[in-house]
Amino acid sequence: MHAVILAGGKGVRLRPYTTTLPKPLMPIGDSHSILQIVLDQLASHGFTSVTLAINYLGPLIRAFVGDGRRWGLTIDYVEEDRPLSTVGPLFGLKDRLPDEFLVMNGDILTDLDYADLLRTHTVSGAALTLATSERVHRIDFGVLDVDAGRIVGFREKPALRYPVSMGVYGMSRKTLTPYPPGVPLGFDQLVLDLLAAGEHPATYPFDGFWLDIGRPEDYDEANRTFLQLKPILLPAGPGPADPAVGSVAGVAAGIARSGEGR
């Protein structure tokens, strides 16, 4: 099984943390980085190869991850010469990707079974499958149901429930066919394009742990709770041979080896 990790973003919302480290290398707890956790999980779920799409501070990610042998993975890279959003980096990979593969953002902490998502996507025959998580938004007002100027219903401070995309996808290579390399495109536009073409992406509902580390408060929460989260994020099993990989020391060593701090 193959996965593509999107790790090229600048992490603007996490500044100043991301002025010297790309977001996927941000330390979580005292001994892991976000990317370390994701690679450990993919390896434990049976993935054998990973492509890392890099741009901002890409040499640090290369220095940190290497060829992937420490995880038992084969890792290669695609480096953007300009920002291509979230789907654009895949268009130049069409000849290198399998028929079905996983795509995910590189700043996610979750105990989602990535292998089951990809298997479910493959069986569905859908062009794209989105992992979804339910979110609840509470309205602080009384909500009126109105029809022809008359109130026909009333809900006091209702809770609205809706599925949101987790930033993890099962994808078919054929989905990329219409797009030439080098075109910037986000997953939002890809979904709209599929809908316009009469193709309806599938969903993979998930009710476990999921945290998108996009804001400083999310990052702080991940660090505060990592000791409790560690057993579900990193099930017991063999890890990489180098104990420094994924640790704060490992990140610092990667910076030193790359010779680039910014």
UniProtKB/TrEMBL annotation:
Pfam families, per the entry: NTP_transferase
Domain Nucleotidyl transferase, first and last residues per copy: 3-226
PANTHER family found in the cross-reference section: SUGAR-1-PHOSPHATE GUANYL TRANSFERASE
The name this protein goes by in its record: NDP-sugar pyrophosphorylase, includes eIF-2Bgamma, eIF-2Bepsilon, and LPS biosynthesis proteins
